[in-house]
Amino acid sequence: MSAQKVKTKTKTFRLYMVTWNVGDRNAPTDFTELLKLDQEPLPNIYAVGLQEMTGGDDHVYNDWTKHLTEILSDRGYFRLKSVRMQAILLVVFVKREDILSFTHIESEISRAGMGGWWGNKGAVSVRFDVNGVNMIIVNAHLAAHMDNVRERIEDFHTILRTQKFRDKDVDHILDHDYIFFMGDLNFRLQKVTSTYVERAIRYGEYKALMEYDQLLKCMEEDLIFVDFLEGQITFPPTYKFDPGTDKYDTSAKKRIPAYCDRILWHVHEDSFENIELDVKQLSYESHMSYKLSDHKPVSSLFEIQIYSSPPIPLPVRFLHITSSTKWTSNQEEDVHYKFDISPNLEYLPDKWDWIGLYKENFRSIRDQIAYVYIIQGAKMNKDGCSFVTFHNLSLDPGKYRLLYISEKKDTLLGISEVFQVVK
């Protein structure tokens, strides 16, 4: 009789995804309905993918990232990573209380179409490990127009082929345990008239419309998204609207309404012997009240299974920092820490690692108030522990934290308890 495998305890995380072609418009003032901010519990992870952003390549200080960061940081979220390729943006937020679960954070881009030199089509991605399970979120914008099905398929395979990662466990997108893929995929309803589509919309016959959906037909033929899943579509087509209205295209072209904006996923259920990975889709919907562009945003809420805790504790421990610790503004403060070296440790101390001082509700790794590189001032005391000195900082009274950041991919290796700064 063979020994029965012992199952390890798992934890459920919630992931909420939004894809929206925003048509060169600035962010709306109210995200409540789009992000379901009035519903509890809020997810552990938010991933917002945008297409057709306004000009520029900035992924942090653009109007959309700034608004999303302000709104979500006030609700206990931390911006894990953002990445942008011209008009395609992906921003990922995680609950600040879950920050220790996320490691090996990377981003990638893939240019597609026009020989790959322009970058108006293609994809951006953010990948990470969450409690030792690797996961990737991809935001794509594929080739446009009804007849360009082959180009869309080529764009998809270009994205899969060209995105490569430095993590030791994965090389490509499809190597990840959890793969979530969203975007303006631009697949249309073919061999059907606008009159038929609009009548089906009027009577809520969305299932009938899917018989004409290019993406589903290509998936049935294993031309794209092989082994991926998509939830049942129970909402009207999300393209093409007259901007600022709920009216489908009334221009001279009168484009046939279509389901361009989609969210799909794939999971390798048997990646681990002692836990079974699983995705449960809790919602898949459009948000018709948003009228900025000629697309309506689409969202989906998922539950995923992960290990209950990180496989390896963070190696850096801050010493003598407790909830009762008080620093005084404009005074010199020593920060003592110990770097615990273990056989399985991937990140070793480096002279370009740094220790940052953050407010308790910091918004991202780059939100530090002050920092010291290890090469600049780390000293060893008689106990074998290290310390750095923060010199005469002018700080507002309040609650703060210290973070130890590796020079490799800005990986968090240590975080202190919250402490007070007083006058």
CATH domain class name of the largest domain: Alpha Beta
N-to-C span:
69 Å
Distinct helical segment count? 7
Query: Which percent range fits the helix content?
Result: 10-25%
Regions with little confidence, pLDDT below 50 for 5+ residues = none
The largest sheet has its strands arranged as 3-4-2-1-11-10
Classify the secondary structure makeup into a structural class: mainly beta
| Annotated CATH architecture of the largest domain | 4-Layer Sandwich
Counted up, domains total 2
Explain how this protein is built.
This protein has 423 residues and is mainly beta. It folds into two domains: 10-307, Deoxyribonuclease I, Chain A, CATH 3.60.10.10; 316-422, Immunoglobulin-like. It contains seven helices and 21 strands. The chain has a six-stranded mixed beta sheet with strand order 3-4-2-1-11-10, covered by helices on one side. It is elongated, with a radius of gyration of 24 Å. The N and C termini lie far apart (69 Å). The mean pLDDT is 94.
Task: List the main descriptive attributes of the protein structure presented here.
single chain, mainly beta, Immunoglobulin-like, 21 strands, 6-stranded mixed β-sheet, 423 residues, Deoxyribonuclease I, Chain A, 7 helices, inositol-polyphosphate 5-phosphatase activity
